[in-house]
Write a structure and sequence with these properties.
Layout: H1 2-18, E1 31-34, E2 39-41, E3 45-46, E4 51-59, E5 66-73, E6 78-84, E7 88-94, E8 97-106, E9 113-115, E10 119-123, E11 136-139, E12 144-146, E13 153-159, E14 167-175, E15 183-188, E16 193-197, E17 203-212, E18 217-219, E19 223-227
Parallel strand pairs: 2-10, 12-19
Antiparallel strand pairs: 1-4, 3-4, 4-7, 5-6, 5-8, 8-9, 8-10, 11-13, 13-16, 14-15, 14-17, 17-18, 17-19
Length: 228
């Protein structure tokens, strides 16, 4: 009888201590679905002459009970955000305008938040040709500290895209002043990197001007990095 009582006590202890794991659970990043990356979104429902309602969609992510959609107007850099437990949500945004969007996953049992990739798209308007998307810094990441190579150089690398697919050139500006005033020259549409000479301990600034066949241009805005 005594042995049975001890066994019951041990079983109760195991159930109470290990039955449920109430510790933090880190959410995973959501996978974006629509609007597609570097696309023209033509499915928006017109609200008025300036706005249309676009439905953003993504796939559910593990360990997530809430999502926050962030949509940034790339002409004004003004963000709009919406929180939801669903995997789609509609938002009224400006017509004929480029946007960047991403989704942040959260879990009420964790302090960690995870953000998806950022996709760019144009919300359709009356225009028949589109300005290129602003170039995005690939390396160095803006705000980072990097090591120079044996030649005392750092490679600037960026990505560029255009709905019309007619980018013709990139012009890179680079200097230790903000905004950068020195042009490194113009490169073709298939070249998205440039080597620059740097000095340890200095902070540098760079930006990329993208031009398409119609003469439309977009400015990436200023990126910065420090050399270790």
């Amino acid at each position: 009888m005594k042995q049975l009582l001890v066994s019951l006590i041990l079983l109760l202890l195991l159930v109470s201590c290990g039955g449920n794991d109430d510790g933090p659970v880190t959410p995973e990043a959501a996978e974006l679905v629509f609007p597609a990356e570097n696309s023209e979104c033509t499915t928006g429902v017109s609200v008025n002459e300036e706005l249309s309602q676009v439905t953003f969609e993504w796939r559910s992510s593990a360990n997530t009970n809430s999502y926050t959609l962030t949509v940034v107007n790339l002409e004004t850099n003004v963000p709009q955000t919406l929180s939801t437990a669903a995997t789609s949500v509609s938002l009224s945004i400006a017509k004929g305008t480029p946007f960047a969007w991403s989704v942040t996953s959260t879990n009420s049992r964790s302090d960690q938040v995870v953000t998806s990739e950022t996709w760019l798209f144009y919300n359709a308007g009356a225009q028949t040709t589109y300005t290129p998307f602003p170039a995005r810094a690939v390396s160095p990441v803006s705000g980072s500290t990097v090591l120079k190579d044996i030649a005392n150089e750092v490679t600037l690398e960026w990505s560029g895209a255009d709905v019309d697919g007619d980018i013709v050139s990139f012009e890179v500006f680079f200097s230790d002043q903000n905004p950068p005033s020195t042009s490194l020259g113009t490169v073709g549409a298939t070249t998205m990197k440039s080597n620059v000479s740097v000095i340890s301990g200095e902070t540098y600034y760079w930006e990329v001007l993208t031009t398409d066949q119609e003469g439309n241009t977009s400015d990436s805005g200023v990126f910065e990095f420090k050399v270790h």
